Amino acid sequence: MRAALVVEWLKMRRSRVPRVAAIALLVLPAVMAALFLGMSGGGGSDAMTLKAEALVTRGGWAGFLDVLLQIYASAGLLGMGVVVAWCFGREYADRTVGSLYGSATPREVVAAAKLVVVTVWCLGLSVLLAPAAVLVGLAAGLGPPDAAAVVGVTRAVVLSGLTGLLSLTVAAFASIGRGYLPAFGGLVGLVAAAQLAVVAGAGQWFPYSVPGLWAAPALGAVPTWHLVVVPCTAFAIGLGTLAWWRHAELV
């Protein structure tokens, strides 16, 4: 297992995909939230201003974090899901999956190493979201964060971590579909299903909707104990992915 972890970590560290995704997830949602906050209340009639008026209901750190949480509820799953799809789909795209049959390391151990590495990456990125959001807020002229803002930033970190766990579902799509395209298709389907569940009023029971609803109470009150469905879902998906790698024909 240690050798597989080292190999997968080296792949992650040397590739541009995780780096680009990390920068995008840490910077773009916060910058967009600051832009929407600045555009709200301007009295404009263009599409962007109207969108900002709809998203921003409060000023200061509260409004900034409200928008950040709404953006990250979808953008986080998309960005992290892309990295998971890359991690599991590249074996097929690079045509290296056949070599796993001749490796001394069992295939399910390789899959487990991939899951561990992407999970650590997602959780590490979630921790970095806090200073990134604070820096963007300060740069936007919001001033030092107060106690309520600290709570909001903490919610953003938890939202990001839970979203990272849910993104592991894409590993199953990439494995069963044998490549990037099925993984990307499944990822888009998950985001759409989460939105539909919210519209249908079932979001508090649908794992992929729960973190976003919990982090942004204005979208719908979700008890904190509902969050337990997220790690349970991630654990079940992980076990299923390992079982597939153990028994399925990879080529």
Give your account of this protein's structure.
The structure is a single chain. By secondary structure, the chain is an all-alpha fold. The chain has one domain (2-247). Helices cover 75% and strands 0% of the residues. The chain contains ten helices and no strands. The protein has helices spanning 2-14, 16-39, 47-55, 60-93, 107-139, 147-166, 169-177, 180-199, 210-215, 229-247. Helix 2 packs across helix 3 (47-55), helix 7 (169-177) packs across helix 8 (180-199) and helix 7 (169-177) packs parallel to helix 10 (229-247). The longest helix is centred in the first third of the chain and has 34 residues, at 60-93.
Proportion of residues in β-strands: under 5%
Order of helices and strands: HHHHHHHHHH
The total of helices stands at 10
Structural class computed from helices and strand pairing: mainly alpha
Count of separate structural domains: 1
* Gyration radius from CA atoms, angstroms: 19 Å
* Shape designation: elongated
State the total count of DSSP E strands. 0
Low-confidence blocks of residues: none
What gap, in angstroms, lies between the N and C termini?
23 Å
Biggest beta sheet summary: none
Arithmetic mean of pLDDT: 84
- The helical percent reads over 70%
